[in-house]
Design goal:
Largest sheet: 4 strands, antiparallel
Order of helices and strands: HEEEEEEEEEEEEEEEEEEEEEEEEEEEE
Number of helices: 1
Helix content: under 10%
Shape: globular
Number of strands: 28
Strand order of the largest sheet: 3-2-1-28
């Protein structure tokens, strides 16, 4: 029998040897100004080299992107009052996108997409109307009509932002059994059991995890081992640590910390949260303060310890993404029209500017697809 430590080493070595040398970074934007749609750069994780491809697809407000695991298809949430999801085929030679079809999300302003672990289903969260739709992914990458649709209800104490439900993100668990939907307006992380044969959602028991009044849960990230999850709340600018029971789909709250330095005043608007692939660090972005908060994750307890804050060198970091191999972090500064690249210290989680600043109009989200 191979010892676990040796097995992990073998898997790690094999993965490293098989890792693609080049990826394409696709960037979703808001097209209310100079942007025309989705932009792209070629990226080499080994040295951080970036080569501009440019505009790869014209489409309206492709604010959030999701890439299929087979590297052949890309999906964009068209964040408009009449919400749509556009499906694209990726041209392997050029990286450009070919529109396959577009389907209605059955709601207003879809702001997040995620594919299930089989790549056969896609979830769309409609922010303004507070709903979630499920779509079958056909063999050619196009999308079929919605297989299921869930309308949320509820409100909370912030009458300007929480007057009704606002679904902000749908996250599929690693075992593909549950879908977690963060709803900023309803103040809940809804938990649904997912039937991967039918593409349907059923409320779990319990049906949700409740956040503190006025928090405004926005995004959720799991540690790679699935034992803990981290909920970022936009309105309170906090991150809440949960212990996660994968068998029952149940959250147990452990800790809540601010994503801002002590004493910072002004409008609060946290945006994105992500766990480093090594499971040791967590990052969260602060709009207004225009920074990335860095935390160390306790290996056994899952709780967080602040490691400081790094300016994103731009305005309004709506999104950031950790690149392939976990060596670089890309901070998308929406209102300064740039993406600043940081090198990640693998021992401390610290961020240092890598020297690359990408000029992209109103960048919102970034996904990486290996070249073929």
């Amino acid at each position: 029998m191979i010892k676990l430590s040796l097995f992990v080493a073998i898997v790690t070595l094999t993965t490293a040897q098989a890792a693609p040398a080049e990826w394409i970074a696709y960037i979703g934007t808001y097209t209310r100004g100079a942007s025309k749609g989705i932009y792209a750069y070629r990226f080499q994780p080994s040295n951080g080299k970036l080569t501009e491809i440019g505009l790869v697809a014209e489409t309206s407000n492709p604010s959030f992107l999701a890439a299929h695991s087979n590297g052949r298809f890309l999906y964009a949430a068209n964040e408009n009052p009449m919400g749509m999801v556009s499906a694209f085929a990726i041209e392997s030679a050029t990286g450009r996108l070919k529109l396959l079809n577009a389907v209605s999300t059955k709601g207003a302003d879809p702001c997040h997409l995620e594919l299930d672990r089989t790549g056969k289903w896609l979830f769309a969260a409609n922010y303004t109307s507070g709903s979630v739709a499920v779509f079958p992914v056909r063999a050619d990458g196009s999308l079929g009509d919605a297989s299921d649709f869930v309308q949320h209800s509820g409100s909370s104490v912030n009458r300007e932002r929480q007057e009704g439900p606002h679904a902000h993100q749908a996250v599929v668990t690693a075992d593909n059994r549950f879908v977690m939907v963060s709803d900023l307006g309803a103040e809940r992380i809804f938990v649904y059991r997912f039937d991967a044969a039918k593409g349907s959602l059923t409320p779990n028991t319990p049906a949700f995890a409740k956040l503190a009044d006025g928090s405004g849960p926005r995004h959720l990230a799991f540690r790679p081992d699935g034992r803990f999850s981290y909920a970022l709340s936009e309105l309170s600018e906090t991150v809440t640590t949960f212990q996660y029971d994968s068998k029952g789909g149940v959250f147990q709250e452990l800790q809540t910390l601010s994503t801002l330095p002590t004493g910072v005043a002004g409008a609060k608007s946290a945006a994105e949260v992500a766990v480093h692939p090594n499971g040791k660090f967590l990052y969260a972005s602060n709009r207004g303060h225009d920074s990335i908060a860095i935390y160390a994750i306790d290996k056994s307890k899952g709780t967080l310890t602040s490691q400081g804050f790094v300016p994103t060198q731009g305005k309004t970091p709506r999104n950031f993404a950790i690149g392939p191999a976990g060596t670089f972090l890309f901070a998308a500064n929406q209102d300064s029209n740039n993406i600043v690249v940081f090198r990640i210290d693998q021992k401390t989680g610290g961020l240092t500017p890598a020297g690359s600043v990408l000029s992209v109009p109103a960048p919102v989200s970034i996904v990486f697809v290996p070249t073929r």
